[in-house]
């Protein structure tokens, strides 16, 4: 009985070991340069007091009086000593909330998710946000040396580990009745970005009024509409909290039989024949599914298609992103009848 | 290990009688296949009538034979339901015949694309395609899936052909599972990293919904060629399936059949999986039922499998539309509900 | 069974060697990670004198994961050793027999049942260990049910080991399909959670997971060791075992349940990791023979070593990306396994 298989296995394991040691060294420059470069950047940033600082309109004296503050959140209470200069987030939605408030987070997990939407191109191109990995690499967080970590209940981050690194807030999104606003407000209030929050909300509400007025003028109110995402094999319907603002506030009507988010086929679409269709391409996997739909003869018989009431958009209007929701209102306001 | 010895004694039908054509037992397979065809036709008609958009039998008849381009019901029939029904027929036939071939070539009653790592190969190929080439056209995606399924099938069959001392059914299943686990782990890792996991799962839940005529242009030729090839090889496959020593004695002539059979499996499975995703257990049940109905001769098993495989899938496809209207249930759920008990029953009856 | 002196000496080489390698890898992985720490810092942190940063990294981040990898590896390989003895087939393990799928099904059901109902989630959280206890319970329940199912289905005037294997394969396929079905009915967040979990990852390792797994190891491993003689007898065949006075069916049942327990706990802690329970006993058998008194501890050590190595590779090979440990093991394990099958 030869020992060959065993020897082969040992060799394989040894090789693997060697690779991982080299892999670590090979990548260490990357992570090291990632962390040391950003360490340098943050040092110079701290010296010149720029990007990671707060919105320009804030008065630093006013800020000083509001800290330290204790914030109650999902996992208990956390005390924030001073105005955070280096915030790190454990999911890209929290990162985007910060961006919407005019703050550039020092780093975030799943950074690549932000790059999918054009809404953040400017911030992403002009600033260096550290990518903390997908899933979150806790050691990268340690390297980032943040003074505040923001997490959501759904991103599975380990609170005990995070709070050992820096003060951590875990925001509870499960009881929200609104796609983004409640969490957004909670976040802004926790870090005392009242001015930026107010500015955002004022603009948001204004745009909402404008959108409602525009939709009324263009006679969209009361028309049945559906929001769907075209994908390779089938189409998904968006409903529930994702589309609540469109149905409950902007005046579109929902088709009662289609009130659950599910896959929907062309035949069903043809049967219920909505007046307006909003179709989004699957942002993680654009394969021209929308074109495929448009070439279908059955699609062309839909009322919405014949009246030119099919609008192509992207899924940012259906998600919990603050800027996405702002964009959604602008999109609706500017709809051509 | 021959197929005979792995089945319970009571399951074996009487050996096919070759003494004369007037023996009643020779009529039986033809009767079975003919009945199957009739039932299939009926179910196809039902499939055309079922769906969310209401229409009667007469409307449907007119739609098929007296098509009017301006009638939206007719359009729905031609653009949506007809290709879907035709795809179900072809995919069902492909999977069943492929399963029958696999079971015969490997002398393993548990052989099936989803157990032997074939669909996992296709999943991996799809994951790669979705992750790395997001703009790929429909044809491109189909090709990837085809290649992946084919690679998976081919690999496992190659192992079984070239294993030292032959491969017992158990070992083959284990090898297939090992490959399957590896491939699906890879696919999952890629999918999670590129965030296409859910899309991949829906793609792979399988089903013939949304099939276009373009896809049928690829599917039907593959199906027909594959089934024709299988029938041509049927006699040799029968020999291979019956006994190891007989097979070895006939040597090179059977090697050609093995290669041909593998090619047929590749073609059939690749086409089916690339269009309809992974439909579990479909390739497993039908060959078993056919063996019970028409005996051990693959000249009868293959056509029988084609017809009944088509029937199974058409019926399941109808059911996916009826369970939770107006939404669709993934077809894998249905085939699993039917297939799982059958699989357990088969496994229980094994010896050795 | 005679044990000559040279065998007795030999029987220390392998376990000793394995422990040495594990120790070496342990020290190595203390050093690896995005945060660069000097050996001095690590040393100080280990004895409790380190600066807060080093202490945090070593104690909260690296150590739990390393220990968990060893524990899970040991659990899985002991479970595999049991399976191989019970089925008299050295290419069986909990994964192939569908017990891992059962555990996975239990957890997937837990995720889906606790997602909508936030009240249920709060109750689970109150158990104190952030639902790790719940996951372990769900995994164990799933694994136990799967093994009972397999046993019941394979029973036909007794259990023929090969039928056990085939039924196990079938149950595995069925539960695998069931998992996919439940997953398809989940929403995206849960789905990704379930997918990450099922692929086998020790990413979220923390001390509470370690503490939850610990009782299973502390209780079950010694029990298995006491049954070493029984395992030896079982591998000889049913007739011999019966004639030696062994209540074969009862012992098989118990052992299967123990294996299910070990697997369930391991799966709850580290997700669906395949092949460890298959390779480790196999390799160990080549090294030290089939006497379970020696095979069991060596299996545990080799399994721990295998998983430790895979976890290190998975975490650092493609840094900053992480390869799930289940995948690394599969990449090593599958080809080797197939190679084994071919050689037979």
Number of domain units of chain A: 2
Distance between the termini of chain C: 28 Å
Kindly report the name of the CATH homologous superfamily of chain C. ABC transporter involved in vitamin B12 uptake, BtuC
**What does the radius of gyration of chain C come to?**
20 Å
Main beta sheet of chain C: none
What does this structure look like?
The complex is a heterotrimer of chains A (337), B (352) and C (344). With 337 residues, chain A is α/β, with parallel strands linked by helices. In chain A, 47% of the residues lie in helices and 14% in strands. Chain A has helices at residues 4-48, 60-66, 92-100, 111-115, 121-126, 138-144, 159-165, 181-190, 194-217, 244-249, 266-272, 289-294, 297-300, 303-306, 322-333; strands at residues 69-73, 76-80, 87-89, 107-108, 130-131, 148-152, 168-171, 225-230, 235-238, 263-264, 276-281, 310-313. In chain A, helix 9 runs parallel beside helix 15 (322-333). With 352 residues, chain B is an all-alpha fold. Helices cover 75% and strands 0% of the residues of chain B. Chain B contains 14 helices and no strands. Chain B has helices spanning 3-6, 24-49, 57-65, 72-105, 118-132, 138-162, 169-193, 197-205, 213-232, 234-242, 244-276, 282-294, 298-322, 331-348. The model of chain B is unreliable at 1-23 (pLDDT under 50). Chain C has a single domain, classed as ABC transporter involved in vitamin B12 uptake, BtuC, CATH 1.10.3470. Chain C is 79% helix and 0% strand. Chain C contains 15 helices and no strands. In chain C, helix 3 (52-86) packs parallel to helix 9 (207-226). The relative contact order of chain C is 0.17. Mean pLDDT of chain C is 81; it is low at 125-130. Chains in contact: A-B, A-C, B-C.
What distinguishing features does this structure have?
heterotrimer, A: 337 residues, alpha/beta, Rossmann fold, five-stranded parallel beta sheet, five-stranded mixed beta sheet, 15 helices, 12 strands, 14% strand, elongated, disordered N terminus, B: 352 residues, mainly alpha, 14 helices, 75% helix, globular
What is this structure, in a nutshell?
The complex is a heterotrimer of chains A (337), B (352) and C (344). Chain A is of the alpha/beta class and 337 residues long. Chain A has helices at 4-48, 60-66, 92-100, 111-115, 121-126, 138-144, 159-165, 181-190, 194-217, 244-249, 266-272, 289-294, 297-300, 303-306, 322-333, and strands spanning 69-73, 76-80, 87-89, 107-108, 130-131, 148-152, 168-171, 225-230, 235-238, 263-264, 276-281, 310-313.
